[in-house]
Specification:
This protein has 20 helices and five strands. The protein is mainly alpha-helical.
């Protein structure tokens, strides 16, 4: 267990002056500032700093890494708002025919429904999605502190843990990107913390049921968190072996049965909904695992990418790598796995190993599949930061790394909003021109969008995204019979072979984009 002896807020007065050029020689100033704040002020300060750093980003439309995954949820939210969909009938913009309602199931749609409802208060705005994402990010930080305290870590260690979770490129990017991964982690952490608080006193009241509800929401918002049920099961077993009361096991089994029962029902519901959905839409949803690499060369390539580029750079922070490895070294040397609640984290690691077996291939391009490792990275860095303060050089090095971490945090992902937006400028800044050229009720064919949901979202039109160079004439005729009259293409129409024998007119052209009306 991480511990700094005799920690009290009053024993660490806040300095009255703080000069950047003397940080390395007066490293205790920074530590004392962190230690001297009350818990509430410390947590609010961390959240406020993150909020201020994100101010230039809040107003931006979805863009950057995995913008397609952001848009999948954002389009569902907007359809709740514009089409007044019922809660369990979530829908995408991919439609084939005017009678197609767009129904599809990706995950439990609570966050999408909440975002859709927020549009009724403010009108449609990109700001809503980013603010809601940030709200869940703030809840994650509060939940991390709560969990550490419930696992009997001291105040000092709990604060370092929150700091290292918050000061990573992963957190900076995904805390304002509308994806289900970070909200699911926040829900799971809070659920585990509330359950643990009740287990210690062996109470099964309102707080316990809220904890089970949060775990259920987490594992259905992102099914990957089923693998971390082992950590929660460990908490039940640990308390049972401590008190030997059968009621603990009974409550644990009953709670697990409830969670699994709800999850199985929702899985079957989603599977059946997607079976009747049109192929163009259902093909964007995966409710199954990914094949494990069969070649060793491919395995080691993905493993290297996942460990270095994703885990160390995104989830640890490149500037914190020495701190993390210092924590790992001393954790092994001092046998910290023998501490009272280390089993929770050991089973968390086992859960990730199992997840890796079933979804290893996803690590190639989807770093958000490693979201759950954020807490393991913070745990190692927390222990490393505490141990480094026991050495004179380590204290100075720690301060230097702490100064670098925010710059690395922002610099590692800032290009995603500047240089690699993954959305054409024409759609980001001139989409209203396209919408003016296409009647609102008309469905469109999009040529040039590999995602295939991003262009439809920015155009705010329903339809399909296809490669007109590879589509068959029969399939193209089916789309025309279904009522498709407009094509939005990133290529000039005269270069699209399937249009050679079809009458059309170019309604509008902006940059590389052309709006084509079939006559």
């Amino acid at each position: 267990r991480f511990r700094r002896p005799d920690f009290t807020a009053s024993s660490h007065p806040i300095p009255t002056s703080f000069q950047m050029n003397s940080l390395c020689s007066k490293y205790c100033d920074l530590i004392d500032v962190i230690s001297g704040l009350t818990t509430r002020k410390f947590l609010l300060s961390i959240i406020l700093i993150q909020f201020l750093l994100h101010l230039p980003i809040f107003h931006l439309p979805p863009m950057g890494q995995h913008v397609w995954r952001q848009v999948m949820g954002l389009s569902v939210a907007r359809n709740y708002y514009e089409e007044d969909k019922s809660f369990m009938r979530s829908s995408q913009d991919i439609r084939v025919g005017l009678q197609d309602g767009g129904e599809v199931y990706t995950e439990f749609p609570l966050i999408y429904w909440l975002l859709g409802k927020s549009y009724h208060l403010t009108g449609f705005s990109h700001l809503n999605g980013r603010l809601m994402s940030f709200l869940f990010a703030a809840l994650l930080l509060l939940g991390c502190y709560k969990l550490m305290r419930e696992l009997n870590y001291d105040e000092y260690s709990s604060r370092w843990f929150v700091f290292f979770v918050s000061c990573t490129p992963f957190f900076f990017y995904y805390s304002v990107s509308f994806l289900p991964n970070l909200p699911s982690l926040a829900l799971f952490i809070w659920g585990a913390a509330l359950i643990q608080s009740q287990l210690k006193s062996e109470k099964w009241g309102f707080e316990y049921f809220i904890g089970i509800l949060l775990l259920t929401l987490s594992t259905n918002t992102k099914q990957l968190y089923f693998f971390y049920g082992f950590s929660v099961a460990y908490l039940f077993l640990r308390q049972y072996f401590y008190s030997r009361k059968p009621s603990i096991l009974i409550w644990g089994v009953a709670s697990g049965a409830f969670l699994l029962g709800v999850s199985y029902y929702l899985y079957r519901y989603g599977f059946e909904m997607n079976e009747v959905a049109t192929f163009e839409r259902s093909s964007t949803v995966q409710l199954h695992d990914a094949p494990f690499p069969t070649e060793w060369r491919e395995f080691f390539r993905i493993l290297e990418l996942a460990f270095t580029t994703w885990f160390l750079e995104m989830y640890v922070n490149t500037a914190a790598i020495p701190v993390f490895f210092m924590g790992c070294y001393f954790g092994i040397k001092n046998k910290t796995w023998q501490s009272s609640y280390s089993g929770f984290w050991i089973f968390w690691g086992i859960g990730f190993i199992l997840l890796s077996y079933f979804f290893f291939s996803k690590f190639d391009q989807h770093e958000y599949y490693l979201t759950s490792t954020a807490v393991l990275a913070a745990l190692g860095s927390t222990y490393g930061a505490i141990k480094m303060q026991e050495y004179k050089f380590g204290k100075k090095l720690l301060i230097l790394l702490l100064i670098l971490m925010p710059f690395v945090m922002i610099g590692r992902v800032y290009h995603r909003w500047v240089y690699t937006k993954q959305v054409p400028d024409e759609l980001l800044y001139s989409s209203e021109i396209f919408r003016a050229a296409i009647p609102e009720k008309k469905q469109i064919i999009v040529h040039g969008d590999w995602t295939p949901v991003v262009y439809l979202y920015f155009l705010n039109r329903k339809g399909v995204s296809v490669d007109l160079h590879s589509i068959s004439s029969a399939k193209f005729d089916q789309y025309r019979v279904a009522g498709f009259e407009y094509i939005v293409s990133q290529q000039k129409p005269e270069k699209i072979s399937i249009l050679k024998n079809i009458d059309y007119e170019t309604v509008s052209s902006i940059g590389d984009f052309h709006v084509i009306k079939l006559l």
